[in-house]
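Record type: monomer structure entry
Structure origin: computed from sequence
Chain ID: A
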Amino acid sequence: MKAALLFDLDGTLVDTDHLHLDAFNLLFAEHGFQVDRPTYTAKIMGKPNTGIAETFLPHLARDAALALLARKEEAYRGMVGELAPIDGLAELLDWADAQGIPCGVVTNAPRANAELVLSGLGLAHRFKTLVIGDELAQAKPHPLPYLTGLERLGAHPTRSVAFEDSPSGMQAALGAGLALVGLATSLPPETMQDHGAHVAVKDYRDKRVRDLIAQRLVA
């Protein structure tokens, strides 16, 4: 049975959540409200735009709300400058290549965002597949995006590992049967573990990351 590593994007490969928060508030200001970082973390981070529209823009028709959120994504892309991957990521990808383990990205971000960020990081060629939640019948927290990533890579969940930073993403990964590394970029490690992360780490340099992968390889 083949193994794979599947990564969320924002907050997992790169810390861009502060840019997303700024872009949301730029557009939400047109409707007379703002969100703070705790609200962003609890109610926006990792969720698809359809769910964000229902939570924050119920006064708008669905098409109008999604159009506003499309403008938010445009604003976000305009804010993206020089990007740096989470520490240790490049080394982990090198190690996975040496082990013959394919890697993929599984995200609720729009494709234009994901392609911009992966290109900006210089990592687009390192991933064998890019799964976009909104292009499927169900986005995260449904497990379908992770199941799709596994299928595309020909991998089995019991031998594979997901990397996530949000509760909705963690729910999706666990629902797909993957082992889970929580990246504590926005949430404290104990919260990640409360949501089911097998290990919660600050970055990819933590020895427990490769230890967990090695455990799955012999499962």
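Annotation 1: The longest helix spans residues 62-79.
Annotation 2: The domain at 5-15+84-217 is CATH 3.40.50.1000 (Rossmann fold).
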